Amino acid sequence: MPEFKIQHITKYSYDNFVRDSANKIILFPIVDIYQDVIKHDLTITGSPQVDTYVDYYGNEVGSFTYTERHTQLIINSQLMVNTHARPLPVDTMFASEQWTELFNLRYIVPYIDFLKQEYFEGLIELQPVVENERKTEDTPYHTALKFCQYVYKNFEYIKGVTTVETTLDEIWKIKAGVCQDFAHLLMVMLRLVGIPARYVSGYICPNRDGMRGEGATHAWAEAYIPGYGWLGIDPTNNCVANEMHVRLAVGRNFSDCSPVKGVYKGSANHRLDVSVSVGYEDSHLPQEKDIFTESTFPKAESTASRNSYARYMEIVQQQQQQQQ
Length: 324
Known about the structure:
Papain-like_cys_pep_sf, Transglutaminase family protein, Transglutaminase-like, single chain
């Protein structure tokens, strides 16, 4: 039962005064029998009231508006989380029975959302790969593990190789990417054979063996297994998500799990800095002054050393939109 400390800081800096900064945040970890939030301190510039609600996918979402004129907005989330080991699925049902059960979920809410494919021209090329990896006698669980291994072995993990404009087709062609790319590809494969798949955002914590993306933000997929439920599968590390994975939110894809996004009024440009630190309960996490860099905008040589999924969040989803 490991206990982790997590600090996730989002910092907006403006070159002139702005106002009415309205934001939606998904920084509240999932709470269930496998994950406990011992403590959560959320501090925001100006101390605005944060109203919370649960969205369609079960994520706790906060919203706030900072109305005063300001040149800086900092959202600092500090967590202490306990995780518990989850048992693996036991295939007590015949494979044919499990596939029949999945087939019957096609028109049942909420599985419909998690079976719908995103537009992907490469499906024509991916389909024979999926059929080759899948064997008739395989259960959905073993099929999911095989697909996970395929992504892990056939796609190279390279930080910075994908950008905000990178599509699934481009990832398929270059056979490389980072954790969110791996998760999206795995979900495509799972959905092709009728296994509901959803996207998971969160954090992966350090362990002795070392894992890709550890100590920072991370992404993986969950597959729905008959008789078991949602099983986390991490294609970046070719493993079942376990007590080292802290779940933040789930959805159809990354856009449903955006940790911070919003709008503001003003003509000022803005700079965005994001930092995530993850450690064990007795570890030291750096303070704000140790986290933020002095650079005006991230440069290629500096961003290459940071977690690629964090950069993806910075550029795509945490970027504020300007309202004149």
